[in-house]
Structures are given as structure tokens and as C-alpha cells.
């Protein structure tokens, strides 16, 4: 079991192991007790919050065998064939137990034809059929479907809820991690337990020393290559508007600007080193994907060594100031204005 990825190993097998989503759990366990399970449910809510997990637990609680649990992913091929098969196969009785459970993931992706086929089935389902439709975008599910299902809104998981489950895993797996670091993972996950777990998974293989806050910042900085690349591109504009808008966008979407600036400094350092000595490229290529490496090389052509060095210095000051700034985005805004002005001057 040792090398099983965390999400497989710790996927909840029963109601007690589910975190959050109390309203869903309570309603469904009650329905099970009273024998009043509906024929069709819609689980709607953000990714990684337990929709598929709870759908499977519900199937299990209904005594549904593996062969009678059919999972369809509407995102993979938009489902026409699957729904047709479903419609044809649904009349056959379950192999064991009383129920056949159909889980249709990302149901909003079904084509119009597939929706219509599904609708027909939902109108007159055989007694043994239970549908669980899951979606991250409920507003894209047609009204005709919505009116035939019992809907459950799933909510983002709260940071303390995520921490509590992560703490258990850390203990069971004997992962050494500082509480601060665990909190940061939970915060970064943005309400998705899956994201939190996968960050922990990556960190576990990253180092065998105690995981600290900085490791996470570094790791997540690496994930955000695209963002860092975009703002670096903005530095060559004649006006700071693009860069300022981009910072506003980052800040609104909840990006930790301090971590972001750190990743940006790291990125610019690579550009600088590449300008100093092209033989460093091999070393760098190991840390980057081929595409990322190409990007850095292209961007390096636009910088003079001097400009790269100065930009790093300016962003280092900004990074320090972010903590103390009344407006977190202000130091970054000042920095890009200064850098763009300097780039302009050096071109004249
Ligand atoms: N509420 C929860 N309680 C316990 N574990 C959870 C919860 N939500 C998610 N997880 C864990 O995160 C993983 C992903 O969850 P799941 O597949 O159920 O998410 P989902 O809501 O179906 O996401 P998606 O919309 O991306 O399909 C699971 O393996 C499970 O271990
Ligand atoms: Mg799912």
C-alpha cells in the first residue's frame, strides 16, 4: 500500500470519512434509512469537493455491486454513444442487489442529443435505476433536466476542514511537515480537497526533510510558470498598463503576491544567468520543461544583462514591501512602473 497515491489510499469509503458537505450527507443518509432514495440527483459544486466520492458511497450504501455501478464521463466524448448505450442497457436488471447506479460526471458537457436521450430516460426510469449527475457548472444544465432531479449544492471546503484531514494523513504516512506549511497547503487549495492532497503528495516526494512553508512557496511558484511568463512579457511594453492590469487580475483571483513575486524573481534570475553564461543552460533545462526552457531563452533575448539584474533588484525590494504595504499589490505596481521606465530609457 506504501506507494499508492494519497487520493486513492485515503478516498473516503463511508459517510463518516467525508469532510464538510454536512447537508448532503445528512439528507442522503436519512433517505437511505427511510428507504426514500430518489431516482435522480444532481451534485453541483466546485471541483475536488466530494461529488464523485459521495456518489460512490451512495451507490455502495444501496448495495450496488461493482458491475452495476456505471460511471460515464461526459467531458471525454460528450456522451452520445454512452447515453444511447445507457438507454438501451438500463432495462436489464442489476446483477446483484436491487440497484443499478449511473454516475454521469461533468454532465453539463453532454451534447443536445445526449441531453435529450438522458431526459427520456429520466422521465421513466426503471425502478432499479438511480442517476447521479455531477457538474462543476450547474448553470449549463438544461432546465428540463434540473426539474427532474433532486439538486445538492456542494460547497468549497473550509481551510480548517481541509487541515483536519491532512493532519490525519500526515500522521498515518509519517510525513514531517510544519503546521504553518500544512496551513499554507490548505489555503492554496482554494476549497478543493483534491488540490490540497495533490500538493501534499508532490511535496512528499520532493524532499525527505521536514517540509516547511518555503518548500510550498517554491513548489507552487513552479506551478505558476505561465503567470510569471506573462508578466515578464509585459515588462517590454512601452506603457505599464498591461502589467498593472495583470497584477490586478492576479490579486483578484487570490494569488499570493508575495509568493508570486518570489517566483518571478526566480524566473528573472534564470534569464540573467542565461545571459551571463549559456553553458548554464543545461543545468537549468533539468528544472524546466522543454517549452518552459524555450520561453526563457526567447525572453532572455529581449533583456540586456543590466536590465535583467536591475529588474531582479527592484522586485526583491517589492517582495519585502508587500507584507507591510496597506495595499498588497502596490509594491508590485511600483516595481513594474520603475522597470518599464528603465527599460525605455535604456532603449533611447
Ligand atoms: N468532502 C470530502 N471529504 C473527504 N475527502 C474528499 C472530499 N472531497 C474530496 N475529497 C478527496 O478528494 C478527492 C477528489 O474528490 P472527488 O473526486 O469526490 O471530487 P469531485 O467533487 O468529484 O471533483 P470533480 O468536480 O473534479 O470531479 C477524493 O479522492 C477524496 O479523497
Ligand atoms: Mg468528480
Structural category: alpha/beta
Largest sheet: 5 strands, parallel
Number of domains: 3
Give the fraction of residues assigned to helices: 55-70%
Give the tally of β-strands. Answer: 5
Strand content: 5-15%
- The number of distinct helices, counting runs of at least 4 residues, comes to 18
What does the average pLDDT come to?
Answer: 88
Distance from N terminus to C terminus (CA atoms, Å) equals 64 Å
Indicate the radius of gyration in whole angstroms.
Answer: 25 Å
CATH class of the largest domain: Alpha Beta
Output the CATH topology of the largest domain. Rossmann fold
Bound molecules: adenosine-5'-triphosphate, magnesium ion
Any idea what the CATH superfamily of the largest domain is called?
P-loop containing nucleotide triphosphate hydrolases
Which short descriptors sum up this protein?
348 residues; 5 strands; alpha/beta; 3 domains; binds magnesium ion; Helicase, Ruva Protein, domain 3
Description:
There is one protein chain. By secondary structure, this protein is of the alpha/beta class. The chain has three domains: 21-153, Rossmann fold, CATH 3.40.50.300; 159-220, Helicase, Ruva Protein, domain 3, CATH 1.10.8.60; 224-347, Up-down Bundle (Zinc Finger, Delta Prime, domain 3). It is 59% helix and 8% strand. It contains 18 helices and five strands. Strand 3 (100-105), helix 6 and strand 4 (129-135) form a beta-alpha-beta unit. Helix 9 packs across helix 10. It binds adenosine-5'-triphosphate and magnesium ion. Adenosine-5'-triphosphate (ATP) binds at residues 7, 10-12, 18-21, 47-53, 105, 134, 136, 157, 193-194, 197.
Amino acid at each position: 500500500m506504501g506507494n499508492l497515491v494519497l487520493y486513492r489510499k485515503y478516498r473516503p469509503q463511508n459517510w463518516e470519512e467525508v469532510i464538510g458537505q454536512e447537508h448532503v450527507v445528512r439528507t442522503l443518509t436519512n433517505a437511505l434509512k427511510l428507504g426514500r432514495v430518489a431516482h435522480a440527483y444532481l451534485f453541483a459544486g466546485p471541483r475536488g469537493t466530494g461529488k464523485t466520492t459521495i456518489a460512490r458511497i451512495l451507490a455502495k450504501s444501496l448495495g450496488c455491486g461493482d458491475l452495476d455501478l456505471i460511471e460515464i464521463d461526459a467531458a471525454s466524448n460528450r456522451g452520445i454513444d454512452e447515453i444511447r448505450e445507457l438507454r438501451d442497457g438500463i432495462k436489464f436488471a442489476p446483477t446483484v442487489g436491487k440497484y443499478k447506479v449511473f454516475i454521469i460526471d461533468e454532465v453539463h458537457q453532454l451534447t443536445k442529443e445526449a441531453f435529450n436521450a438522458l431526459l427520456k430516460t429520466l422521465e421513466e426510469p426503471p425502478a432499479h435505476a438511480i442517476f447521479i449527475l455531477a457538474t462543476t457548472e450547474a448553470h449549463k444544465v438544461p432546465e428540463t433536466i434540473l426539474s427532474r432531479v433532486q439538486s445538492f449544492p456542494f460547497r468549497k471546503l473550509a481551510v480548517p476542514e481541509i487541515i483536519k484531514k491532512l493532519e490525519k494523513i500526515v500522521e498515518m504516512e509519517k510525513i514531517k511537515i510544519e503546521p504553518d506549511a500544512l496551513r499554507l497547503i490548505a489555503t492554496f487549495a482554494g476549497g478543493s480537497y483534491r488540490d490540497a492532497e495533490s500538493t501534499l503528495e508532490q511535496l512528499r516526494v520532493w524532499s525527505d526533510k521536514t517540509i516547511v512553508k518555503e518548500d510550498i512557496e517554491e513548489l507552487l511558484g513552479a506551478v505558476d510558470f505561465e503567470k510569471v511568463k506573462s508578466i515578464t512579457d509585459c515588462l517590454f511594453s512601452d506603457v505599464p498598463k498591461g502589467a498593472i492590469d495583470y497584477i490586478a487580475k492576479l490579486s483578484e483571483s487570490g494569488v499570493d503576491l508575495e509568493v508570486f513575486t518570489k517566483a518571478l524573481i526566480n524566473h528573472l534570475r534564470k534569464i540573467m544567468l542565461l545571459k551571463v553564461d549559456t553553458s548554464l543552460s543545461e543545468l537549468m533545462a533539468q528544472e524546466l520543461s522543454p517549452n518552459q526552457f524555450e520561453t526563457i531563452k526567447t525572453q532572455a533575448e529581449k533583456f540586456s544583462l543590466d536590465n535583467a539584474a536591475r529588474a531582479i533588484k527592484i522586485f526583491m525590494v517589492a517582495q519585502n514591501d508587500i507584507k507591510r504595504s496597506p495595499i498588497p499589490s502596490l509594491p508590485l505596481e511600483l516595481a513594474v512602473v520603475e522597470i518599464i521606465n528603465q527599460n525605455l530609457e535604456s532603449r533611447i
